[in-house]
Write a structure and sequence with these properties.
Length: 415
């Protein structure tokens, strides 16, 4: 299902370069009971969120304009914790001259409804990892603040590998996989540990748990994936502080009634959240429904895109490290048919879940907006520029869920 594209234009109506106070009414907010009213001040910031019918706590300004959402949803923008590239640029192949391209990607992702993301480095040589970490660290330090309201923020890096089980490596090249030891972790991180926020690893490669404990001591979130771990091995990793599972069901053993494995252990652990690719190819809708129900929806699951570099480009054949991938209908595969990833944006997963009738609209939105923030301990409240908020509308007759940035909304009149 196609998303509703938005224009990178200033939020809310302006008068003499000053934002007009805005009163949004009849809005549904994930995590809030009933219809809400939201007051946005002249600086474009949310000042109050109140139930409909509640009295305004301060005297309303004279220039207030009204935007009636008519029981549509309003939410934060998405946060994508696993995205490998966009517009043809893989994050593992960065060069110093790619700064302008990275800014273009950030603006593109904002237009796709994403507020923030973790550029993901898949398994490659240590030299490539180090170079990309260096460039991303420098980019984050120098992100242009003047375009920030219309640009997705890089939060840090997700290292997906190279500490993966060869038997579950998927599309990751075997020649670059490394043993999981503290010495190898230090080698990969080099001087850039601070920019790495999340790492995917196979816990069975670290039987004594020393590497996981070391990563946690650095403040890096540990996610289990590309693994053959038993439930006992996964539980040991969770006890050491691992708190996530990377693309649940993919690159790990399936659920079994006598050996629940990594995923089974995660589903019953109250402090573990599972990443989910809801493109319709990585997991069939029935298994997604099972995962959502078992995990209490956004309490235990968050959506990721796992999008590859051709995100934003048409179907076709594209380079991928030293190999090629073919993209058809948004799905990328290696020449041997191995599923490599997708080129669908994050919020398509939200739309799919609703279209497949796997969960309520509120849950689907929360899976891409609230849940990933919780997974990496980001603030999840709505106290941010109103330009960043998303307005969602469900067509009851077709079941199609669409969205647009609040920036493109035009205030109407009257309640």
């Amino acid at each position: 299902m196609a998303n509703v594209m938005t224009k990178s234009t200033p939020a809310i109506a302006k008068t003499n370069d000053r934002c007009t106070n805005l009163h949004i009414i009849n809005a549904r907010l994930p995590g809030y009971a009933g219809l809400q009213q939201i007051w946005i001040d002249s600086q474009g910031k949310i000042s109050q969120i109140l139930p409909m019918g509640a009295a305004f706590q301060h005297f309303p300004p004279p220039d207030v304009q009204v935007l009636n959402l008519a029981e549509d949803w309003l939410s934060l923008g998405g946060v994508d914790l696993q995205i490998n590239g966009a517009l043809g640029l893989p994050f593992t192949d960065l060069e110093t001259h790619d700064f302008a391209f990275l800014q273009k990607i950030c603006q593109f992702l904002w237009q796709q409804g994403v507020d923030a993301f973790l550029p993901t480095l898949v398994t490659t040589s240590v030299e490539n990892i180090q170079r990309s970490l260096s460039i991303i660290a420098d980019f984050i330090q120098h992100q242009e603040p003047s375009v920030a309201p219309f640009s997705a923020q890089m939060l840090g890096v997700h290292l997906e590998g190279p500490f993966l089980n060869p038997e579950k490596r998927g599309a990751h090249p075997a020649e670059y996989l490394l043993p999981l030891t503290i010495e190898q972790v230090k080698r990969v991180l080099g001087d850039y540990a601070e920019v790495v926020k999340l790492i995917t690893l196979a816990p069975e490669l670290d039987p004594d748990g020393k590497a996981i404990s070391y990563l946690k001591s650095l403040g890096i979130t540990v996610s289990l994936g590309h693994s053959q771990a038993t439930a006992a091995q996964a539980e040991q990793a969770f006890d050491l502080g691992a708190s996530m599972v990377t693309h649940a069901f993919n690159a790990m053993p399936g659920l079994h009634h006598r050996e629940p494995g990594l995923l089974g252990a995660a589903l019953v652990h109250p402090a573990v959240q599972c990443g989910l690719i809801a493109d319709g190819e990585h997991i069939c809708p029935t298994m997604i429904q099972l995962l959502l129900r078992a995990s209490c929806y956004e309490k235990g699951v968050f959506l990721v895109s796992d999008a590859l570099a051709p995100l934003g480009l048409p179907d076709g054949i594209y380079p991928w490290d030293k190999r090629q991938i073919e993209v058809k209908n948004g799905t990328a595969r290696l020449p041997n048919g191995t599923l490599a990833g997708t080129t669908l944006p994050l919020l398509v997963g939200v739309q799919n879940l609703v279209h497949w009738r796997l969960c309520q609209v509120e849950n689907a939105i929360a899976l891409a907006t609230i849940a990933p923030r919780q997974a990496i301990s980001l603030t999840e409240n709505l106290s941010q520029p109103a330009t960043q908020l998303l307005h969602w509308h469900l067509n009851e007759s077709t079941g199609e869920l669409t969205w647009q940035r609040l920036a493109s909304q035009k205030p109407g009149s009257g309640e």
